Amino acid sequence: CRRGVRVRMLTSSRERYEAIRDEAAPEHRHLLVQCTSHSEGGGCKTWIVGKLCGAKDQACAPPGTHFHQVVVPPIEHTRSDCTYGELAAMDLPPTATDVKACELFMPRRRIFACHAGALTHMLEGWKHHEVGPIDVDRIDVVWEAALRHGFTPAVAPGGAQCAGCGQLAAEDAAERPRLGKQREGHISSAVAAA
């Protein structure tokens, strides 16, 4: 909403909708619209999926829709006329041992960004979290801490693209770009879901 984009929020709870709407600046609140069924998203070509979304729900999206996923496990790709984003992921620090997670969906030593965020919070001893409403001013703080602890953006298999954000990244973890001003809003948003 901060960028002047109208957002349709799917929830049957009027209280939940109003609580989230009230977090927005007064001049942006009119841009958040409550929807109670997937069919109300029929005119939207960008869907941000935060919970399971089956074939019936995905059928409500118009052809050419891109599904951005922030739900674990990932949704099934049921539409050949739509595209699906990969879940944001990070590679574990080389020093991490005895971590067994996500191997059903990802290669060894790769974890969902939300799990990297949780581990970063534990390592830092923080009490805040990014479950539910998040403090957008802390996104870069969490991102920098994750990098400092040795987490690196995941590179998609067979290519030099970050699996979480699609930006080009170096194959060698030591050469992967750290958060720079030109990438700030792009990559750090992947960790926001952590």
TrEMBL record:
Its main location: membrane. It is found in: Membrane. InterPro entries: CER1-like_C. Residues 1-153 form the Very-long-chain aldehyde decarbonylase CER1-like C-terminal domain. GO terms for cellular component: membrane. It is a multi-pass membrane protein. This is Very-long-chain aldehyde decarbonylase CER1-like C-terminal domain-containing protein.
